[in-house]
Amino acid sequence: MIEVRRSGDRYRGGETAAGIESLHAFSFGPYYDPDNLRFGAILACNEERLAPGAGFDEHPHSHTEIVTWVVEGELTHRDSQGHESVVGPGDVQRLSAGGGVRHVERNDGDRPLAFVQMWLSPLAPGGDPHYEIVRGIADSTPYAVPAAGALLHPRRLAPGERTALPDAPFVYAHVVRGAVALGTSLDGDLLEPGDSARITDAEGLAAVATGDGPAELLLWEMTG
Q1: Which residues make beta-bridge pairs with 106?
Q2: CATH classification of 150-222, choosing from 2.60.120.10, 3.30.420.40, 3.30.70.120, 1.10.760.10?
Q3: What is the pLDDT of residues 190-220, one digit of tens each?
Q4: CA proximity to 78, closest of 56, 100, 98
Q5: Cβ-count burial 33-54 (b if 16+ within 10 Å, e if not)
Q6: Is the pTM of this model over 0.90?
Q7: Residue 45 to residue 23: CA distance in whole angstroms
């Protein structure tokens, strides 16, 4: 089963006056929908846009796997474990909150920053916080989040290029840029930037870049 969610249906949050715009795909903060709490291991898929100098002051997390994908600009990360990094497009950043950690996220650059941040529920709560960054991850290299029983497959597609979707109990697809047809053929569901699909018992599905330009797609493969 494929359930498509459109970008326009996302809940608009953030503080526009502070240079922050947040678009939420799942219940988050003041937005609560009891029928939209999670899908598989995914608790949140937020599109965040920060103006130069804007950011999220130090705040806590616990019992969450937080994976960040920068679309444009540079994200500065600092946490209570002493890690400090600048994350750019093509990098994968993961903060395992464990029993508790605090961090800061800012746009310290002079260009607008856009990133996608995804929160996953761990298979078991607690543990020590952990931070990791992978620079310039390749399309052919899935990024494993074993604590959540999940794999992230980034896909960058040239116009007309096709990629197979993982066969898995749960697959979550998020379109970062471009347009893709999702299904078993070229006339499948058309997804554009910010659109997503929640796929149950995926088998034999593919995504095809259908626009004039390249497409970028984030695919989560989840066992439960």
Answers
A1: 55, 76
A2: 2.60.120.10
A3: 999 999 999 999 999 999 999 899 999 999 9
A4: 56
A5: eeebeebbbbbbbbbbbbbeeb
A6: yes
A7: 8
